[in-house]
Amino acid sequence: MPRLLFRYLFKRIGFGVLIVQFALSIPVVLSYLLYQLPPAAVRGGLVIPALIGVTPTVAYVTLPMAVGVATALEFGRMASEGMVAVLYALRLSVWAICRPALVLAAGVVVLGYLLANFAAPYYSSGMQDVLNVVRNSLNHRMLDAAHFYTFDNGVKTLYIERWETPDLAVNLFVRQLSIEKMQEETVTAARAEFRRNESGVIVALSNGSIQTRSLTTGDVRIANFDEYAMALPMQGSTSLPDRGWRGVYELSAGAFLANYAAARGDPRQLGEWTAEAAKRFGVPALAFAHTLLAMALVLTFGNITGRRGAAGGLATIAVPAVHIGFLVALESLLRINGLFVLLLAALALAEVGVSVWLLARLNRSPKPKRLLGQRAASARDAYATPLA
Asked: What are the φ/ψ torsions at residue 195 (nearest 5 degrees)?
């Protein structure tokens, strides 16, 4: 294929991949954030960290489908405009016509592996930190008035009557247990100002009292104060609170592979590890398989003479259906038994094999001798039988 034509097709399909990728990723990311984050997360400034945390994962999961759909759309356009027939007339083979899309798909596979094994694990930790803050109410701007909240596994209990400003509360109640001192403290204050530092939140209390009760003797002491400060384990100004655990999806490629020895002893952890491994190492490679499938469907069942056909629409529907089916089977079957990975691998190889077979059939041409023999036979039959 001429270099100019190669660049033309490569740029058109690449631009289509960008458009389809944005069209697929944005609704998925927004729907996920709306499902996971409450409206109060906007006040807490958690939307941007959550957006950054989930975007790389959505990108590498939807990228193979974007490549397949963009290829189907571009080849469908070429077939409807008669461009494929012109390329055949230039004596270009089917593989030559498919080469720009295949090169682009190979590059997308490499990009998908980088996202799946390095970018997505790194940024998914931020998303899990945000979910930890949301589920455990670790952002003071997300606290609702007239509700009880517990922290540190029930050691601290917090109640706020109402908010004057996002950082200033009226009539605060705090109950906390100290195992070291073997005592229970009950703190009440007329006003409380929440101030963030780098590692947490400092609450500046005014016009309140502290009631201390010993857990061993039961003695009670009460002291009033004008100003008092206490620390709460909440989101600081520079970082989110530490969760104390890491999921297998947060591990980089080397640490993830090393984690197999620990996950092998527990069936549940082994199922999660297998499902994550299939996503990391199997999903990016689907970009190549979906590209082959899209081109095979359009070129085999499409009308390349410039007339309207349904093959472009068939490929546009088939690629997302195959990709979504693969993801659903991956998430459901592999958590039951890791041996289902063999079935998924066989299905992916079958997609590639059928696509290559369809394209190879198109690329095959009749032998010249056979073609000349057919023409000679038809020429002989064209003469009339001489009269006796």
From this structure: -125, 125
